[in-house]
Amino acid sequence: MHKIVHKEVFSPVIKLFEVEAPKLAAKAKAGQFFMLRIDERGERIPLTIADYNCQAGTITTIFQEIGHTTKELGKLAEGDYILDLVGPLGEPTQIKNYGTVVCVGGGVGIAPIHPIARALKEAGNEVISVIGARNKELLFWEDKMAAVSDRLIVCTDDGSYGHKGFVTDVVKQLAEEGEIARVWAIGPMPMMRAMAATTKPLGIKTTVSLNPIMVDGTGMCGACRVSVGGETKFACVDGPEFDAHLVDFDLAMRRLAYYKDEEKRAEAAGSCGSGGACGCQK
Amino acid sequence: MSKINPVKHEMPVQPPKERIKNFNEVALGYSEETALAEANRCLGCKKPKCVEGCPVDVPIPDFIKKIKERDFLGAARVIKSKNSLPAVCGRVCPQENQCEKYCIIGKKADPVGIGRLERFVADYELAHGGETVEKLPPSGKRVAVIGSGPAGLTAAGDLAKMGHQVTVFEALHVAGGVLMYGIPEFRLPKDIVQAEIKKIKELGVEIKVNYVVGKLDSIDDLLAEGYDAVFIGTGAGLPYFMNLPGENLNGIYSANEFLTRTNLMKAYQFPQSATPIKVGETVAVIGAGNVAMDAARTALRLGAKESYIVYRRSEKEMPARREEIEHAKEEGVKFALLTSPVEFHGDENGNLKAMTCIKYELGEPDSSGRRRPVPVEGSEYEMKVDNVVMALGQGPNPLVPRTTPGLEITPRGNIVADEETGVTSKAGVYAGGDIVTGAATVIMAMGAGKRAARAIDEYLRPKA
To answer: What is the dihedral sign for C-alpha B183, B186, B192, B194?
Structure first.
């Protein structure tokens, strides 16, 4: 059991939890994730590690409420417990001094880009961070991103805050201003696909962190398989980071949508009070 | 011999039509009277051959003698001296290739139903509360066991009885390995697995779940933290795919994913359980081992109208147990033999719709002794399917081997370990079960765990 020691509500749908997990906090590295299960009836879902604190023995995660499990999670309060946490999983980000790097976080992807930007900065890179969201309400951690970046650019699709426009436009602009050694981009699948399409003609090596459906997260089932450079990879053990220019995004997006009917049913069941046990979902 | 009933007593089962609508256990177990009658078929051989066929050396005639005396808890005590998971073994062991194969009565008639009797005794003990197993005084030594499947649990139970302090590290949120995520509820109820694991915990074994060795701690970290020896029983949990075009379409599962969702996550109770599973009208399972039979039978219970086993050899070469194949047939599983897919086709949403199969014929025997399947040119045809489950076998998960310097690995990724002792190339580190042998049986893994526990005990005892 893992106690939620701190909760922040960034928007009605984006929430932060700081959770007790001393061993995980001690071993976590930028780019890794964990799996959680709320309770006995729960499913296992992957979430990225947005921060870790070895002294306090906690990890921080930020999630968007998009379905049954994340909504259930969002209802928990400080002092509540999460039944299962397992991690750190996945391969850590390859941190080196590359020169000037751009770290892009889209929407809830701002959370996982944070430890990567911090590690790249600590390794001596000049870090330019670009964070964006559909609107101002969905933005968070501007201060924390500023603290780990040499330069921070904020944008919103609707112009309600910062630059009006997409993160891809900003990156294109940055590439015109000076040499970029590498780009890391984390966010919704369409955003990562657009970023790959933007940097490929510019010849900038780009890394994305994929978020396919996962079950165990340890390489035993292949639910999270993705196609990278024509080869099947398991995102949970071979990734989650991959070369953006080799990822088959269309396949990845179609695989993410496979259970959408079931996800709706689970959500409806979650709100009926008996978890659907009354038969209302049959 | 003349007085002995030549026929093994039948075990009552749920009728096929009823059972494909639920996940309850198919075989219902002996009553006390049937168990007694079956026990009386045992001759009580002085030099019992049956024991030679048991990978964990259960003193079979001794426990059967206790059943004859109606001392069922006494019988359980006899079994438990050698086997920590009798309710599991009595259900899933291929007895026809082990203990029962060597039974003297089996030469002229049905062998004694040793597995059914073991199951009866174990269930009786779980229902009536057994007595504590004897333990040696504490040795002051600590052993780390990686993986809580049959190999790890057996090693842990035996080592605890030998007086060592044992911690089991399990990556999933529940202990049991394949007993929990792989073998379906209708063959091996999960409550029974957990009840047997509880007994192992009562021996003083600590089980840490959600603990991925290789990510949280490496083997070297554990040795540095003060564990005196390590047993690796991480199994063969890496699913094989065929690398065919379209294999990543929606609706194509590995057997591991299909069975993990169903068994471990209880997706058959969706949405009361939050994990979904999706099964359309027609399901094709590729492969013909026990895992394939489990998947095909699971598909029917999840509502598939048609469930196929698609196998490139003939029925004779199928590696699954006879009993599993029979159960599958009774339930209506269909067999597309001498057939294998070559390509999968999807719709505009990336959902599987059909697969192209090719027919095979059998050629000369290959290195495994089975006749080699040869594709028949021009025999391709299309089969409409909504789901495919790949049950082609599993390889060793590389997480532990990859993070353990000094551990010798075979080209296929298995750990090199002595068959009799589990000794690996790394001092103090032992291994056994599927991670060494490749995917085999529950009881083979338990035998390996047992032998390794004996070797670890010898290694830890101060030399006289």
So the answer is: positive
Give rounded-to-5 percent helix, strand, coil for chain A.
30, 30, 40
SS (H, E, C) B73-124: HHHHHHHHCCCCCHHHHHHHCCHHHCHHHHCHHHHCCCCCCHHHHHHHHHHH
Q: pLDDT tens digits for B179-201?
A: 999 999 999 999 999 999 999 99
Q: Out of A219, A232, A266, name the one closest to residue B399 (CB).
A: A219
Q: What is the total residue count of chain B? A: 464
pLDDT at A274 over 50: no
Please check whether residue B171 is in contact with residue B149, taking contact to mean a CB–CB distance below 8 angstroms.
no
Which chain B residue is nearest to residue A263, measuring alpha carbons? B276
| Nearest CB to B250 within list A24, A37, A255 | A255
- pLDDT tens per residue across span B129-148: 766 677 888 999 999 999 99
For the record, the structure tokens of A230 come out as 């024509």
Distances (CA, A) of B378 to A237, B8, B54, B246, B381: 39, 48, 48, 21, 9
**pTM of the full structure:** 0.94
Token couple for A108 = 């809830």
Cα separation of B182 and B295, whole Å?
A: 9
- Residue-wise pLDDT tens digits, B161-171: 999 999 999 99
CB A113 within 8 A of CB A130: no
Q: Which residues in chain A have their CB less than 8 angstroms from residue B349's CB?
A: 254, 257
Catalogue the E-assigned strands of B170-322: 206-208, 229-232, 238-239, 252-254, 282-286, 306-311
Give the integer Cα–Cα distance in Å for A106 and A90: 21
Angle in degrees, CA A7, A10, A13, rounded to 5: 95
Give the span between the Cα atoms of A252 and B439, in whole angstroms.
Answer: 30
Q: pLDDT, tens digit, for every residue of A157-215?
A: 999 999 999 999 999 999 999 999 999 999 999 999 999 999 999 999 999 999 999 99
> In whole angstroms, what is the distance from residue B18 CA to residue B400 CA?
43
**Antiparallel, parallel or unpaired: β A81-82 and A84-89:** unpaired
> Measuring CA to CA, which residue among A234, A16, A144 is closest to residue A129?
A144
Distance CA B80, CA B108 (A): 30
Q: What tens digit of pLDDT does each residue of A13-71 get?
A: 999 999 999 999 999 999 999 999 999 999 999 999 999 999 999 999 999 998 889 99
CA A247, CA A228: separation in Å to the nearest integer? 5
Q: What is the DSSP letter of A45?
A: E
Measured between beta carbons, the chain A residues lying within 8 angstroms of B243 are 232
How near does any CA of chain B get to the CA of A236, in Å? 12
Instruction: Determine the pLDDT at residue B463.
Output: 57
Q: If we measure between CA atoms, which residue out of A92, A72, A91 comes closest to residue A83?
A: A72
Instruction: Give chain B positions within 8 Å (CB) of A215.
Output: 257, 260-261, 265, 275
| Cross-chain CB nearest to B215 (options A27, A225, A250) | A27
pLDDT class for B368, splitting at 50, 70, 90? Answer: confident
Rounded to a whole number of angstroms, the distance between the first and last alpha carbons of chain B is: 50
Which residues are CB-neighbours of B349 under 8 A, at least 6 positions away?
A254, A257, B250
Taken in order A92, A18, A217, B355, the sign of the CA dihedral is negative
Q: Quick check: B422 pLDDT over 70?
A: yes
